[in-house]
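User: Hi! Is it possible to get a structure for several chains at once, not just one? Here's what I have:
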Amino acid sequence: MLDIEEVKKHNTRKDCWVIIHGKAYDVSDFVDEHPGGSGVILKYAGKDATKAFDPIHPGDTLVKYLAPKYHLGPFEDYDDDEDDPPSQEELRRRQKKLDKPDLSQMYNLNDFEFVARHTMERTAWSYYSSGCDDEITLRENHASYHRVFFKPRILVDVTNIDLSTTMLGTKVSSPFYITATALGRLGHKDGEKVLTRAAAKQDIIQMIPTLASCSFDEIVDEATSEQTQWLQLYVNKDREICEKIVRHAEERGIKGLFITVDAPQLGRREKDMRSKKIEDLSHVQGDDEEADRSQGAARAISSFIDTSLNWNDIKWFRSITKMPIILKGVQTVEDSLLAVEHGLDGIVLSNHGGRQLEFSKPPLEVLIELMPILKQKGLQDKMEIYLDGGVRRATDILKAICLGAKGVGIGRPFLYAMSTYGDAGVFKAIQILKDEMVMNMRLLGVTSIDQLSEKYIDTRHFQTRYLPEDKLFGAVYEPLVSPAFKDSKL
Amino acid sequence: MLDIEEVKKHNTRKDCWVIIHGKAYDVSDFVDEHPGGSGVILKYAGKDATKAFDPIHPGDTLVKYLAPKYHLGPFEDYDDDEDDPPSQEELRRRQKKLDKPDLSQMYNLNDFEFVARHTMERTAWSYYSSGCDDEITLRENHASYHRVFFKPRILVDVTNIDLSTTMLGTKVSSPFYITATALGRLGHKDGEKVLTRAAAKQDIIQMIPTLASCSFDEIVDEATSEQTQWLQLYVNKDREICEKIVRHAEERGIKGLFITVDAPQLGRREKDMRSKKIEDLSHVQGDDEEADRSQGAARAISSFIDTSLNWNDIKWFRSITKMPIILKGVQTVEDSLLAVEHGLDGIVLSNHGGRQLEFSKPPLEVLIELMPILKQKGLQDKMEIYLDGGVRRATDILKAICLGAKGVGIGRPFLYAMSTYGDAGVFKAIQILKDEMVMNMRLLGVTSIDQLSEKYIDTRHFQTRYLPEDKLFGAVYEPLVSPAFKDSKL
Amino acid sequence: MLDIEEVKKHNTRKDCWVIIHGKAYDVSDFVDEHPGGSGVILKYAGKDATKAFDPIHPGDTLVKYLAPKYHLGPFEDYDDDEDDPPSQEELRRRQKKLDKPDLSQMYNLNDFEFVARHTMERTAWSYYSSGCDDEITLRENHASYHRVFFKPRILVDVTNIDLSTTMLGTKVSSPFYITATALGRLGHKDGEKVLTRAAAKQDIIQMIPTLASCSFDEIVDEATSEQTQWLQLYVNKDREICEKIVRHAEERGIKGLFITVDAPQLGRREKDMRSKKIEDLSHVQGDDEEADRSQGAARAISSFIDTSLNWNDIKWFRSITKMPIILKGVQTVEDSLLAVEHGLDGIVLSNHGGRQLEFSKPPLEVLIELMPILKQKGLQDKMEIYLDGGVRRATDILKAICLGAKGVGIGRPFLYAMSTYGDAGVFKAIQILKDEMVMNMRLLGVTSIDQLSEKYIDTRHFQTRYLPEDKLFGAVYEPLVSPAFKDSKL
Amino acid sequence: MLDIEEVKKHNTRKDCWVIIHGKAYDVSDFVDEHPGGSGVILKYAGKDATKAFDPIHPGDTLVKYLAPKYHLGPFEDYDDDEDDPPSQEELRRRQKKLDKPDLSQMYNLNDFEFVARHTMERTAWSYYSSGCDDEITLRENHASYHRVFFKPRILVDVTNIDLSTTMLGTKVSSPFYITATALGRLGHKDGEKVLTRAAAKQDIIQMIPTLASCSFDEIVDEATSEQTQWLQLYVNKDREICEKIVRHAEERGIKGLFITVDAPQLGRREKDMRSKKIEDLSHVQGDDEEADRSQGAARAISSFIDTSLNWNDIKWFRSITKMPIILKGVQTVEDSLLAVEHGLDGIVLSNHGGRQLEFSKPPLEVLIELMPILKQKGLQDKMEIYLDGGVRRATDILKAICLGAKGVGIGRPFLYAMSTYGDAGVFKAIQILKDEMVMNMRLLGVTSIDQLSEKYIDTRHFQTRYLPEDKLFGAVYEPLVSPAFKDSKL
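Assistant: Yes, the chains can be modeled jointly so their relative placement is included. Here is the combined structure:
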């Protein structure tokens, strides 16, 4: 058995040990080859790196990439907190985690976010919850739903309500899916596999993210034989790697390829940056080095995602796969029409959950503009239209479908459910939405998804936007004050 | 005399005693036949069930349904609090109740709600005050009135103001009525009878609810001979029961049958669910069992209300009664026109006080859309149009009438007045509205209800909605912060 | 010298003494003849009635109406507080009054209101500041100015700025006047005379209120020989009294008769009612008796103001006076046109400062609608148009004049200036407005009042209203909450 | 060496010594000739005047204007605080200054403002941050950007992003410049020279202010040989002085003359006035004497800026310089067209950062109105259009350019960066904007500035204004309250 004091001595680039999941490893020879850069490893030289390691490495990484001779084995139990005593805030968080409300107290998706905000590790919460710039788009995504009202019909026989529909040919139990979100292990040790299991039980589709914590195969292996999964793809500059990923996905039975087109460069999210240990995730953000940052962090990311991806590449994707191809991140009517022209099977109207370009219009707004134009051109059935971002209630889903969407993707709420209550949490979150769906369809006077249409919707006041507050600008503004009384006791 | 300790021993399904109004009853043989389910009884096995029993059972229930042999008789006085010590919050509430402001301090309907919020039992307050989802509709119902402004005329002789009008043929002292709301005994031991008495004194109409705490006959018996009452009906799947109710109502002199059409399933109200003892009311909500909830609470309610009710049923209602038939819960222009077509005597534009479908349009908005269409088709006199939801001021009532309503229904405010100051409270609340009516008609330059018309109204800015805040979404959102100063004293 | 203990004994209707300004009076024989009712006198039987007496009686009242034999003379100094110890709030107010900021710290009209709110007696503050219902109209009056933007012109020679203009033939130094407001002695012992003196020094017009604390003649006597005063008139049912008032005003040199037409009944203002000693002012409000209130306080006021006043009466006014006649309180385009038709010399667009009918449109909004119609009919020069309500900045005044007003009336701000800093305060408040006027005209690129026109104004976004919050409704609403953590430490 | 006690004795007009930068000077003979008035000098008679002296005098002032005989030399170190002990607030500020966050924690321009607000001297902060009247225009300038949304295009090769553009013929690295702002030494001892150096390193243009703390030549001397600078000009009544300034600027290589046209009189800014030592800056504000203020401070400023400047003067400016001439402070479409007519080289749409006329429209709004009209008349290339005011994010800049601006000016944010982190701060602030620019152009689907156009912009909802709150009016308003419970514990 190793001694922790021994490990602490190996804390230089030349002699670098780290602890991961209670075992020590000698990574001295590996430091300079680490795809994520040497900086993040050296930060943990002689220390426990588990928390930084987990969210971004599949479970078999060490076995696969580090020769056995570097595996130094387990060592005596030690208290990580001893070296790095937790802050008051962290101690409060841990207590909160113990005191969290029972799952039965979760009545809506916001409740999971509430518990997550108070119990998740700061780093993880910040990564999941953050958006770009002033997070106006992030909030407007949800707020836009408030601008649409219902026209509920009465005296309709609503005894039997059927929520099922089809998506890209798959029959599903309800018109929403779990969309791709990165780094599932930040919230739960099983990462994306939790979502896989819940999706199976609830018979909805899961979209597997490129930046998953679990490996693609781990996630697919977790699925049942009847379960449908899709793949979200960040296109790599190296088209061989890209092709390999796509072909492998098709072989493993993936039923839809969702190419992300709203992120030629990953967004800069200040809430995330403010959270203390964010440097550990920096290779994802391209923010690894202060030096680089001052030169423009934005330029450092080109190795990761292909900034040259363009419409001409669609043909190539068609040539390497028979899977339906969908563009994820369409933000305008113009590009939606181009997508039809290029024969795509679908689009996801999305601004990446408000994490990329601030003031990109909320997807619901694009949908409202798009559908009349598609219908006028007779193109409304040429591809399936999805949207994601800001969905929290069944009423949101119903509005999107009434307005022409085939279904909606939901991301963060399921991450929060996973991070707080694991499998049961995600199952419950999905169930809440289904219960709300049944209730609201009944109250709306419809009994099946295909009956939902514009006649149940009032968008007359849609032009009145209720823009979320610019919190930073508002907070730094010093309001005028009235004259001070002399004793200043007022 | 019984001993309380003795009662406590009979706390199983096979041997089940409960205390109600200071008397013990053996309900062992009855548990499984209880229409509200056995769960709620077993919860009180060996305990005092008065508070759970009262709001949902007419006063003669035990006499009627429980054979004398099960009446175990009274027993020594005991303190209910001993077993279930009140929380700090509950103690504060009780103190508040003692300290409540004098009735003379009530200047408007909001004041009653204020006192109610702080003095009513948590369960009762939550049941009365709650709405569906994020309660946006609940608040928008009131807020919509703010979008209408007056065009007051000057130099009119306004010495004599006459508030009287007629509703379904009845002459009334003022153009508003007490609408049907469930479970009156949650707020006052006399339940709906308090409202009956106040309506009589003030010469306005009371609509009797299907889900009253008092029995229908108790409420009708309480009325004076000149008093007009209407009946609100949740249509039972069993049409024989339904017919019996309707025919009995007509025999007892009810002057209008208001069929509720906005609630094929009763809404899920989270504020209500969060309140502690809500399980006692669960059979109303269909939320009685966690097990069921996880499977979709929405499906459990079909036994109570007929989800298949539709336009074809109107004819049948006509065949069993001569009472005027009115649809309560119409939410669109389309259904209003269908109501005319089906020969109904009236409609109530209502979204059930924001308790059913979130984002159903506020009734005032539907009215503003509806009237020009009815007039264009020459149908404006074919039926009487009422509305309810969000009315708090005489100005609200005047706006509705100017825009074409025959009258408005008011529910919660009278419940709050009843729950805080009983008979005198409801009388005062009605009087406040009448005083405001006289004052405001005078200032508007009109002297009688029939003079009120669109010419006194400016709806030019009606399209600017001031949407109530999404409180939960807003509360879970973590605002961006400015960088921390090092000493964090800022 | 009298002994205070002696006075206290005379505290019945039959034997009633009161103290006013340090002297005792026997009012036993007068109680039942008091025009304001006996109730208010009896309330002070055996006590000091100065504070209740002052605001509503001219200074010579006792001399005039109470025979010398009832004047019991002065008595030993005593401390009024002894009987009625001041509340903590009152003590804080008195301290604040001592500590008030120097006049030089007043930078705008809001500053006076701020000091007034914290230093004025509760009763007085409440009477001055209150509005009707939820005070939405009161606030909207000001907020409506925010919907108008300027189109300032550059490169204009703005060296010499001339603020002078004429109103009803009088040359004035600036296009605003001190409008009529009741009960000036609530705020300052000299009452309306303070405003008279400041108006003289600043060469602007004062409108004398019917409900002044000082008598009409006291106010006119206070004026300089060059000073112009107008008279605001509440029309008395007894036309002889009315005629007497009007003829006397004309004789005393009044230059304009402003007939109030927005108050056939005086408004019910809840903030005012909530303030403790408001019963002393009750005869003004018609709220003197609880008994009456429950029957509808609104009906009690008819003796005071003629509710039958109508357009036909205008002719009669013309027959008894040569003064220009102006209607104060016009609230619609329709009535403005009727005013032209009836040959009136002017109108004041006003909703009585938001004290009468809630949701009466803000005067600026009526002006914006009115002017194009007047111009289209060629009537824009037939009468002078004024407005009042919500004016706080020179920019407000400039907007009103650009849009067609001849001038604006300002009420409360001058009352606050008077109540806090007396003569110097009102002078300064007027001066602030003038300074702002010069500055802003220069920045707008105009040099004289007659250059102001619609071309300097942008009303394009006027339709977006920013409605003030419904504070009571908002405050009684209980927001939804997220689930509670178990330890409730959150 | 002098003794501080000695200096204190010379504290009269006849015998007046002051300390500046640790040296004493005898200014007795100079007091009456001081261009800023004698008042401000006398205030510091016998005291340290450094803080009041620095921001408004170039570094060589004393050498230039005060004969050596008056230079009394240095003296023993003393503690300024001893005479004038700092307030608690000042002590907190000094501590904050020590504890300020690392520069690396600055993520956006608001962050600099946040640190500035808490660490700058009260006087300086107030002078920089204040606006006119209720500062609604100041905030609306920024808020107006929120009304414009993007239409981002996908699948565009965005590998290489070029931010460079040209302004008045100068190639610059990014489409924004440092606009002219007064009194740089209030925030940093090097004043405007800090901005000069950062502009050089970042290859952007600096506009030199007339009211700089450093002399014009100091600022120009600080520039590199390749660096471009512009000059902002307040036109002096004395045209000889004016001509001298302009000719000198041209000789020194200035590349653009920006004539300020929105400030015939400098604005009255209440936040600034409330700050304690503002009297020291009074000659700039024209607010030096209470006596004068009461007569209208507005009239005192004519000696400083030519209020008669008008369109006819443009020709004269053309006659004395070959520099491009630009009008700074155009606020309407009408004046923009006049600028074209008068052959100007450009305009800056600006309301002086909300410091002059309240309710002048935000520049972005004027731009949106202007461009279609210019294009319709074929005038869009006749002059370059800039704007300033409220720019905080690269998205703001991108919106302005998409809508037709050639570039934007940024003032306060760079002052805050300078005042908190000096050279490194300003460099970083510029770099943040550039990084945001690259990121956002990539996400928008454009690679160079000239591609930016209206097709990337959605102004459909622009008409919905979100007007900033009227803070003073809101703060003095006393909300209605519900009735009080008797024990008032509520």
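Chain A has two domains: 4-74, 110-264+305-476. The first strand of chain A starts at residue 17 and ends at 20.

User: Great, thank you!
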